[in-house]
Amino acid sequence: MNEALLLVVIALLTVNILFVGVYIVLVLKEVRQAVTKMNQILDSFSTISTAIANPVSSASGFFSAIVEGVKAFHKIQDVVGSHKEDEIDGSEE
């Protein structure tokens, strides 16, 4: 009787361990698929962020060029204005 009961318990434990092993394999397979999808998402995010960063840096250069142009225009106005003031001062004398 004890031997039969021991055999049944060993058989049930073996079947149980077999099911747990199969379940672990299936879970690891799902984890692998999830990691692969996550890697694809990160790759596409990298591509998108690069695509967004390039125009933003170009826009920054564009705006700095406009600011420098405005500064140069003000300098020219100052030079022309001081030149006109010299002409006005020279004609009054």
TrEMBL record:
Regions crossing the membrane: 6-28
Species this protein is from: candidate division WWE3 bacterium RBG_19FT_COMBO_53_11
Alphabetical keyword list: Membrane, Transmembrane, Transmembrane helix
UniProt key word Membrane: yes
Lineage: Bacteria, Katanobacteria
Protein name per Swiss-Prot or TrEMBL: DUF948 domain-containing protein
